[in-house]
Amino acid sequence: MSHDFPPAHPFDDDKLREECGVFGVVGVADASNFVALGLHALQHRGQEAGGIVTHDFETGFNQQRRMGLVRDNFTSPNMMASLPGPIGIGHVRYSTAGSKGQTAMRDVQPFFGEFSMGGAAIAHNGNITNADALRRELIERGSIFQSSSDSECIIHLMARSMGQNIPDRMEEALRKVEGAFSIVAMTRTKIIGCRDPLGVRPLVLGKIGDGWALASETCALDIIGAEFVREIAPGEMVVISEANGVQSHFPFRPAKSRFCIFENVYFSRPDSILGGRSVYETRENIGRELAKEAPVDADLVCPVPDSGTPAAIGYSLESGIPYAMGIIRNQYMGRTFIEPTESIRNMGVRLKLNVNRALVKGKRIILVDDSVVRGTTSRKIKEMILDAGAAEVHFRIASPPTAWPCFYGVDTPDRDKLLAANMTADQMRDHLGVDSLKFISLDGLYRASGEPNGRDTKSPAFCDACFSGEYPVKPTDMIAKGFKPKVPAE
Ligand code: SF4
After folding, report:
1. pTM value?
2. What pLDDT is stored for residue 94 in this prediction?
3. Domains of the chain, CATH where assigned
């Protein structure tokens, strides 16, 4: 996914979509401005809606939620003046569980709850895999839900907790939750960050002057001029206040970390740091691995902009085949024109991308893309390249075949819509109509991601369920609905 605004893929139901970004800050003047900037930097993680909650001691908690982009909603002086105070959190979302694909206002986070010891707001990135079961139980015991979001369960679990303070209640609530969660929450004086025991989704800590920030990615720290301190560890909870700084503890049973490997391929911005490594560098490594695993005689290596760019550069460097911009992206194409029908979706590719005819004519082209999901975009791009007179088209894909849905906070089509779930690699090649189609192996992706020995099959270092069908956290609700993982989940 390219990370510009408006969203880079008006046709992007052919991409997996990260569904949320979270941000929080404490100990700064006018926290809402910092939160808005942080959310703007995280806009690639969710473009349908956003919200900010702040607190100051004169007006108490203040909250604003809007459909649409941060820059269109959280920039006016009036709006920002309505969110006063030195502490605030925010959330951008596509949509996780709940109003799938069409965010309803009531599902826009942060969620807010008033407890006997004061209010708390919570913003969640990830997906709770036992939310249906929890919701049923909570409703039976009298909870009244305001939204269809899985994340609201956390507020109700906190309301039922006997903990003496908000962090204790949050801890107790999160012990009942299964799945992936990177959470940023706030009380009147504290921001709280927490990652699930496997650390599936990212969360980082930054320092800004005397204050502190929490964010899904380091690019959101950069935009506010905060110094990147460290990643919040899997299973760690940090409680941060101006008075006491960062207090860390580990409330869950220790587990081996299983960070989402697709963040390395595509979701995170290339200028972010993950696991101590630049995402850009990892993506370039993926391209190098691809070139080793799947060489082919050709004249040019071209990225599918923008998400394929670092991998295409890596492929070119490793293979010695020149890199060139064979496809040019129209910078100013938004989603405004696009209705989600098949015919318009196809047109969307042309509106968004154009082939550099003079460059590709008569050439054998290697096209590097991050993933193949439904294959609709890949087919269209291939047609455009051939129409422009290319002699051959070879697709090289910077991820293994995406054959399984994600249940940890990423929007994936149903399995019957995933090309790789229904076809072999050769069938996909024929379906796309290209001269060759190769995906990086799972081992190659692990090597590029800093695991020199590839994937340890007994104890993998990452979540790779969308490629392997091995789910590190049991997708309880989906199994109850009849879903069968490839490897039975524990
Ligand atoms: S299933 Fe795929 S997209 Fe989802 S968390 Fe795991 S690696 Fe990431």
Report:
1. 0.93
2. 83
3. 12-267 (3.60.20.10), 277-480 (3.40.50.2020)
